[in-house]
Design brief:
By secondary structure, this protein is mainly beta. The chain is built from three helices and 22 strands. The chain folds into two domains: 190 residues, Immunoglobulin-like, CATH 2.60.40; 87 residues, Carboxypeptidase-like, regulatory domain (Immunoglobulin-like).
Length: 280
């Protein structure tokens, strides 16, 4: 089954008068941006998504995010800019952020130009639920280093830009020597500029497969949502081997697809074949 290609346009023009009113209303306009003209500003939205692991639920305490935009002399005088996660309850069920689900961590106007790094700010209260049991996650000592990742975004003035943080729970949660679980964050960050997306709906939905996109030594992964929907975002132009790996009741499905920039590839309803019943 070959997917259908649809043109994808990630950038959207920014109405500065409207966004200024919205941002002033919630009190998050950066003082450093107040003296800039509209033709010097770009709006950055930061969104969280998940590549889940084999757990019932995973909850993380999210405090906010920092981005490193260019300064007046580009990266020479770049300075970190903090965006708080504003809800009073900072606990986020990260394991739900699959399919079309994504969480807006915050937005901020910055000087237009290169955004080179992003850092997720976490608290100390994290846990998972496995087989109905709640288990605390122990943060590794160098966790802040692991929460800082590169991002390549040239944010033109007058546009809103989305930066995604993809938190790979399958790699981030590891068994420790005491028999519990440690949080060893593994994440990537990307904008959809020159990137693409693969989406579809797995049938039956209760197969809940992992979906892998593999090119060279790079592998991206996600899990279908409870309704069967899945999305793999941030694919660079390349040829990928797509491996759909369901639970034991259904057979794997593998195919290749050549991905171009700025496109959405949709599989529509993707039926999985039942695994044959063993003959006695």
């Amino acid at each position: 089954m070959m997917p259908h290609q649809v043109t994808y346009r990630p950038k959207s023009p920014l109405n500065f008068a409207l966004f200024f009113a919205l941002l002033l209303g919630v009190g998050v306009v950066a003082p450093a941006c107040e003296n800039m003209d509209a033709n010097e500003k770009a709006l950055i939205n930061v969104l969280l998504i998940d590549a889940p692991g084999d757990f019932d639920e995973v909850w993380l305490e999210v405090l906010g995010v920092e981005i490193l935009p260019a300064g007046t002399r580009g990266l020479e005088n770049a300075d970190w800019s903090y965006i708080p996660y504003t809800p009073a309850n900072k606990m986020v069920k990260v394991s739900d952020l699959v399919g079309s689900q994504r969480l807006l961590l915050g937005r901020k106007e910055v000087r237009a130009g290169q955004v080179s790094k992003i850092r997720l700010a976490l608290g100390d209260n994290h846990y998972l639920v496995k087989d109905g049991q709640q288990l605390m996650l122990q943060s590794v000592p160098n966790i802040n280093d692991r929460l800082t990742v590169d991002v390549a975004l040239q944010a033109s003035a007058g546009f809103a830009w989305d930066i995604y943080i993809d938190f790979n729970l399958a790699k981030s949660i590891q068994r420790n020597t005491s028999g519990g679980y440690s949080l060893v964050p593994s994440l990537r960050a990307f904008s959809m500029e020159n990137r693409s997306e693969l989406r579809g709906n797995i049938q039956p939905a209760n197969a809940r497969p992992y979906i892998f996109a593999i090119t060279g030594t790079d592998t991206l992964a996600t899990l279908s949502a409870t309704n069967g929907e899945f999305r793999l975002r941030g694919l660079s132009p390349a040829t990928y081997r797509i491996h759909i790996q369901p639970r034991a009741t259904h057979l794997d499905s593998i195919f290749s697809i050549a991905v171009a920039a700025d496109s959405v590839y949709t599989l529509g309803n993707f039926p999985l074949s039942p695994r044959p019943t063993p003959t006695p």
